[in-house]
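queue> holo job accepted (manganese (II) ion)
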Amino acid sequence: MDNFGVVQIDAHADLREAYEGNPYSHASVMKRIVDCDIPLFQLGVRAFCEEEQRTREQCGVYYLDAEELVPDGITDFTLPDDFPEQVFFTVDVDGLDPSVFPSTGTPVPGGLGWYQTLSLFASVARQRRIIGFDVMEFAPIANFHAYEFSAALLTYKLLGIIARQG
Ligand SMILES: [Mn+2]
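queue> job finished
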């Protein structure tokens, strides 16, 4: 399938063939994507196993990991020339740093900042047509509504970026 690609912000590669026996687990969803020959570009990953690294190489997955993006404060990047014109953008909130977004099931230190996340999304929106996006893995912390607002505002900001690109 080559009429769209997926750009993923995530702490995790999610490229395991299966996790705890489940090929449709949250840790396997991007493996299902590359199995469908959908081009994949990962941003902000900082947790993956050897199996996932092999899959990256075998399936030609593109990536800019957190250790590259975060210390240098990178907010703009260039998608490969052969990356599809249409992009589905998936945001796992654990791609952001836990200091920004602790309300998630599997937080990992060293993640993207708030403005960096918005800028990387805007960078993709300038280069390609974003046909859809999701905001995933949000797990509210009881009696602490700040992060519920953060998740809603993130969604709202991403919609605004797409609207401005028109
Ligand atoms: Mn994740």
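queue> The helical segments are 29-35, 50-58, 66-69, 114-127, 146-165.
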